[in-house]
Structure formats: structure tokens, C-alpha cells
């Protein structure tokens, strides 16, 4: 059955639409932190549809809200008043930490970052963007143009001039040998140097924890130090929270809050987890920035009633059940368990992350050289053991990405860690 579906997939879909596994997997249904394939095999899901199934598969509150909303009206567009959209926007604005916040809903993180770039360049009258090395911001023409990860950037053509700043990767690169304070100082000096060589940029866009890049991050406070430099020059700070938002890092509700000493970002983008699988993205910005466009704009599908109902139900569940706190507690246990395993596996260079956003970087033993073949082998072995994880990494790196739904239990964390340990030892 899988072979037939795979052949049909290859016949009608792009070659660059990659699939995991030598024998690709068709997931047919899920419940809680588990999914099942077409052959009836059960898996513990430690990737959540690329960090998108944030709370749980088939969460009753979300399925009930979607069914009830579908029975009333599914869609009307932004040309009409939309109660679920207003209600979710009110909640998001209140949670954002941005004063006088306005919210615009999109259908994806890519579209959210596109919108943030449009707002920033219009507000600042500049098409120069600062981005981080090893970053990923989406697959549209403009977001590909600012992505600092060659594996996800198929063209150098862009409507923007992009300059890449050091700092997104702590344990590799020219500043890796420095302590945290020296690392931040060196990155700030690099930022100041770039600003001395270019026209005034519109904004810096940065993921607090780089997702596709392998769950890498700088020391806490780096972006606060950057913001001081940027603010002096009127340059905006865009926090790409598509993967880090809604409490996934455990310690904070937003990833930027680890860098909040100098105040909140000017713009925050979000997507993925808020919809728990339904297509929601969005932008939060101060009113003066959000309202800077001097032409009409709408979003046909952004903010549609069906997805807004799902987002409201999902957000309420997350807050009422303190899933951020659960991510902190269970994620902390999982990281320590995996670090204990890593100490005995020569292929593992580093286990990093926070909350339920964990990267396991693999290298050839005794070197810092990436081991993509080892990552693929572990991915296969984990699947055979009943566990689904992801892959990532940037320049010369190979990383396993571990990001379960935030409702993960201690028992499930132990089960998943044991399966991943066996997979790592099998390489």
C-alpha cells in the first residue's frame, strides 16, 4: 500500500518535496502523543508534524470547537466582522508583551514572516534586512532570500538586501571558544561593524532558538544587547516565534523573553503550534508599525472562522493546563536523560535545547564533522522502535530534532528516551 502511494506521490508532486524514511510513512490517525500508520503500527510522536501538533493529537476541545464551528460557518474572509478572529486576536495581543499591539492572521509562518518584512521595510523605507547565520524563515521568495541556511535557500535572487550576523549558533563558528559574556560582546561588535558598512537596515529578524538549523541558540541576553544597538538607530527587531512560541521552551512563553532585558520586539511572528494542526500564522506589532501600509490589504484565508475556533480552544487548553510548566519539567528530565546517554555514544557531539525543543547533534566520532548518514540511520532505527523524531542542521551539521507535544508525560519521555538510546547505540 505504501509503495503504491509513494509511486503516486512521485508522479504528481515535486521532486524537492522530500519524505522521511527509505520506506515513507503514511500517518492515518493520532491520539494524545501517539500516531498510527496505514499498517496499524503505533508510534510515540516526538516531532508533532514539525512542532505543529503542540498540545495533543485529536485534542477533544479542539475537535469539538472545529466541528461546532463547521456546523455554523467555515469561512467569510476578512471583509466581514469575525467574532472568533477578534477574540483570538485579543488573547494574542494581551499575551504578546507588545504595547498597543495589533494582530494580523495569516495561514502559515512563511506568510507571517513575509508580512513582517513588508511592514518593516515600509515603515523604515529600507529594503536591507539583517538576519542570522544558520536561520530559516520560510519558503516564499522573500523569506528564502533572508534564510541563512543553504540547504533551504534554492535561490540567491531576492527583493531584499540581506546581511548575516553572527550569534545564532553558540558552539560552532569563530566565537565558539569564548565564554558567554565574551561571545555576546563579540557578536555585538560584529553587528556594529556591519552597520558601519551599509545603509540603515529596516530590521533584524531572528529566531530565539533556530528551528530548522538544529535547535541552536545564543546565550540568553544576546538579542537584548542587539536591541540596544538597533534601537539607537531606529532599526526594528522581528522575533520569529514560529517554532519557539506558546511556551515550548518551558522557561518562557515566548522565546524572546530570554532576551527581554531591553524590552519586547517591535514585531513578533507566530504559526505552527497555535493551531494544533490547523493553518494559523500571524504577526503582532505595535499599532504604528502595523498601520503603516498606505494601500488596501486583506487575507482571504487568514483568520477564517474554522481555524480561529481551533486556535482559541487550543490556546485555552494550553493555558488552563499549564503546558508551559509541563514543557519545563518534563523537558528538563528528557534533556538530562539524553545527555546521560550521549556521554556513552561517540557519535553524539552535543545535546542542547530547552523545554521540549531538544537537538541531538551527531558527528563522526572524534571529530566535529557532520554525520548525516548517522542521523538518517538513527531516524530509521527510532522508527523501527516505535518513535518518530525529526532532522535538521545547518552548515556542516546533522541534528536530530526532538519536539513532542507539550502534554508529554514523564512516562512517555522515559519511553521515548529509551527508544532513542537504542537507536543511537545501534549506529
Question: Can you summarize this structure?
Answer:
The protein is α/β, with parallel strands linked by helices and 427 residues long. The chain has helices spanning 2-12, 48-51, 60-72, 83-96, 109-124, 141-146, 180-195, 222-232, 287-290, 305-320, 323-342, 372-384, 410-425; strands spanning 27-31, 34-37, 42-45, 101-106, 128-132, 161-165, 203-206, 236-240, 267-270, 281-286, 348-354, 357-362, 387-388, 390-392, 399-402.
Distance between the termini: 29 Å
Gyration radius, to the nearest Å?
21 Å
Estimated structural class: alpha/beta
Low-pLDDT residue intervals, each spanning 5 or more residues: none
Kindly report the average pLDDT value: 96
Residue fraction in strands: 15-25%
List the secondary-structure elements in sequence, H or E: HEEEHHHEHEHEHEHEEEHHHEEHEEEH
The DSSP helix count reads 13
Give the CA-based shape.
globular
By DSSP, the count of extended strands is: 15
User: How is the biggest beta sheet arranged?
Assistant: 7 strands, mixed
User: Helix amount, in percent?
Assistant: 25-40%
Give the spatial strand order of the biggest sheet. 4-10-9-8-7-5-6
Give the oligomeric state of the chains in this entry, treating copies of one chain as homo and distinct chains as hetero.
single chain
Amino acid at each position: 500500500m505504501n509503495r503504491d502511494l509513494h509511486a503516486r506521490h512521485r508522479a504528481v508532486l515535486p521532486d524537492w518535496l522530500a519524505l522521511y524514511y527509505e520506506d515513507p510513512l503514511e500517518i492515518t490517525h493520532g491520539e494524545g502523543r501517539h500516531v498510527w500508520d496505514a499498517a496499524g503500527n503505533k508510534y510515540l510522536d516526538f516531532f508533532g508534524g514539525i512542532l505543529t501538533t503542540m498540545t495533543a493529537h485529536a485534542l477533544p476541545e479542539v475537535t469539538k470547537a472545529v466541528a461546532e464551528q463547521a456546523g455554523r460557518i467555515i469561512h467569510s474572509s476578512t471583509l466581514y466582522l469575525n467574532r472568533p478572529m477578534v477574540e483570538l486576536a485579543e488573547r494574542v495581543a494581551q499575551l504578546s508583551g507588545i504595547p498597543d499591539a495589533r494582530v494580523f492572521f495569516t495561514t502559515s509562518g512563511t506568510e507571517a514572516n513575509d508580512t513582517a518584512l513588508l511592514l518593516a521595510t515600509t515603515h523604515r523605507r529600507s529594503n536591507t534586512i539583517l538576519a542570522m547565520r544558520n536561520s530559516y524563515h520560510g519558503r516564499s521568495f522573500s523569506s528564502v532570500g533572508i534564510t541563512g541556511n543553504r540547504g533551504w535557500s534554492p535561490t540567491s535572487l531576492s527583493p531584499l538586501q540581506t546581511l548575516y550576523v553572527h550569534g545564532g549558533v553558540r558552539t560552532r563558528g569563530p566565537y565558539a571558544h569564548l565564554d558567554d559574556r565574551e561571545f555576546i560582546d563579540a557578536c555585538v561588535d560584529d553587528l556594529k561593524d556591519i552597520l558601519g558598512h551599509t545603509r540603515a537596515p529596516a530590521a533584524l529578524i531572528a529566531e530565539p532558538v533556530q528551528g530548522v538549523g538544529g535547535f541552536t541558540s545564543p546565550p540568553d541576553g544576546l538579542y537584548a544587547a542587539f536591541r540596544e544597538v538597533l534601537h539607537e538607530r531606529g532599526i526594528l527587531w522581528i522575533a520569529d516565534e514560529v517554532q519557539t512560541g506558546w511556551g515550548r521552551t518551558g522557561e518562557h512563553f515566548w522565546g524572546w523573553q530570554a532576551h527581554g532585558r531591553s524590552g519586547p520586539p517591535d514585531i513578533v511572528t507566530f504559526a505552527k503550534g497555535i493551531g494544533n494542526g490547523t493553518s494559523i500564522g500571524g504577526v503582532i506589532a505595535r499599532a504604528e508599525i502595523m498601520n503603516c501600509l498606505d494601500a488596501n490589504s486583506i487575507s482571504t484565508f487568514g483568520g477564517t472562522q474554522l481555524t480561529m475556533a481551533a486556535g482559541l480552544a487550543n490556546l485555552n487548553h494550553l493555558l488552563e493546563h499549564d503546558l508551559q510548566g509541563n514543557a519545563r519539567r518534563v523537558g528538563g528530565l528528557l534533556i538530562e536523560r539524553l545527555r546521560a546517554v550521549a556521554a556513552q555514544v561517540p557519535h553524539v557531539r552535543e545535546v542542547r535545547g530547552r523545554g521540549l525543543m531538544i537537538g541531538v547533534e551527531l558527528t563522526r566520532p572524534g571529530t566535529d564533522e557532520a554525520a548525516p548518514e548517522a542521523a538518517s540511520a538513527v531516524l530509521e532505527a527510532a522508527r523501527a522502535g516505535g518513535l518518530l523524531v525529526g532532522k535538521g542542521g545547518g552548515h556542516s551539521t546533522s541534528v536530530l530534532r526532538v519536539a513532542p507535544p507539550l502534554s508529554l508525560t514523564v512516562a512517555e519521555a522515559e519511553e521515548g528516551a529509551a527508544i532513542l538510546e537504542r537507536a543511537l547505540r545501534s549506529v
